[in-house]
Amino acid sequence: MNKEIFSKLILFFLIPVQLLIFTFLVPPFQKPDEQSHFEKALIISRGYLFCKKKSNNIIKLEKKYIDFIKNPYLDLLTHGGSSKLPLPIFLRSLSSNNQLSKKIDFNIDHLCSFPIISYLPQAFTLIITSLFKLNPILSLYFGRLAISILGYFWFLYLYRKIADNYKLILLFTFALPMTLHQISSFSYDVLHIMLALTFFVLIMNYRLKKKINCWQYFKLFFVLFLFLSSKKIGYETFFLFVFLIPFEIKPMIISSLIFIPFYFLSKFSGSYDLQSSLTNQVINPTHQLSFLLLNPINIIKVVIITTIQRLSFYLQSLIGIFGWLEYGLDPLSYLLYGLFFVYLLLNINLPKKYMLNIKGNFLLSKLKIIQFFKRFFIV
Question: Could you list the residue range(s) of the whole structural domain that residue 208 is in?
Fold first, then answer.
């Protein structure tokens, strides 16, 4: 099987089939944090964009959505470990005509730190389902399908635009099970992934050009700004991506243009969450840092102990993307995608001038090291 047939098989068969499976065969709220993401998209679709105070933010939502969010069998399925989906009840829920429009109180404190921009596509789908009076469970599946279609055709556009030398890298990243699992979910990760891939395509294509004009610079910084503003507080290290841009003017000027608006956006979207995390009595980053800095040997001890205890988890996380760790796959899946990764390495031959320079590799390595240690000490 030659490279072109192999790529088309993945593009037009494997990816669409997996997206459909992940869209319709995964029960509601069984994707990572999908319940919270659904709640955030729902309140945005109802016009609630910001939390107005530090705590006790109460809004009015339709009772049919509250009943769906607090559904007992979905809650057991999510938190009950070995619980199974009661299929007869689930099928009845699909065809139910629950149109309870009575509004009741709903606390949204736990949603205050989520960035608005990441939920706009999902919120739009919920506006559409409200117009057609679909019940909540069908609304969720419609939203999943719409976002899957959006992500898939967005990816096809990027795949067509990227330079041939980098097509396999893009294909491998998008075809990962965790990518497709998230692309087909009610999650802010959809925009994160697609904006990151868009930034990658622009960077790789522009590196092949002898000179970059102002419009191309603008597109690079605009996509990066959207990516940064779509992240929650805690992902500030992605700001280092600004140094991957092949600019000719001083880095500090450019970084300031990106960082200043991003800083204010983070204040609007997540300041309450940041305050609470710094005073949390269970996981307190300030106390953790004090413990580590008190004796440098503590850092080595934590890294060694954590690595020994969770080695299998970290090995599985190699297949993860953008910091999201997927550890629910069977060993065969890891083997198959590992072979895919080897195939990718063997079939990409880049001229030396197209590879990242020492500075670029150093900054990327620094980013990964920061993210790696963050898992040990902050989470």
Answer: 3-278
pLDDT in tens, 290-323: 777 787 787 788 778 877 887 766 666 655 543 3
Confirm whether 332 is domain-assigned.
no
For residue 50, CA distances in Å to 97, 124, 291 come to 31, 17, 35
| Structure token pair of residue 153 | 């055709």
Number of structural domains the chain divides into: 1
Does position 281 have pLDDT exceeding 60, yes or no? no
d(CA 125, CA 41): 9
Positive or negative: CA dihedral 181, 185, 187, 192: positive
The pLDDT tens digits for 205-255 are 887 777 777 788 788 888 888 887 787 766 666 666 766 666 655 555 666
In a domain, 100, yes or no: yes
* CA gyration radius, the chain: 22
Residue 110 contacts residue 146 (beta carbons within 8 Å): no
Query: Residues with Cβ < 8 Å from 210, sequence gap 6 or more?
Result: none
- Site of tokens 């991506």: 241
| Residue burial 65-90, b: 16+ Cβ < 10 Å; e: rest | bbebbebebbeebbeeeeeeeeeeeb
Residue 248 in any domain: the answer is: yes
